[in-house]
Amino acid sequence: MDKTELFEWVRSNQPTKSLTQPQVNAVDNMLDTMSIDDVLNNISKLNGWELPSVDSNREYNLTYANLKKVYPKVNPDAIPFILKYAPKYGIITKKQMCSFLATCIIESNGFNAKRESFAYSAKRLTQVFPAFRIPNLAFAENLVAKGQKAIANHLYNGRMGNRIGTNDGWDYRGNSWIQLTGRDNHYAAQKNTSIPVGDNPALLENLENACIVTMDWWQRNGLNEKSELINVYSDGYTLNTLDYRGRETNDFKYNTGAVAVRKAVNGGLNGFEDFCEVLEKCFKYL
Question: Potential cystine with 108: which of 9, 117, 166, 177 (Cβ 3.0-4.6 Å)?
Answer without folding.
Answer: 177
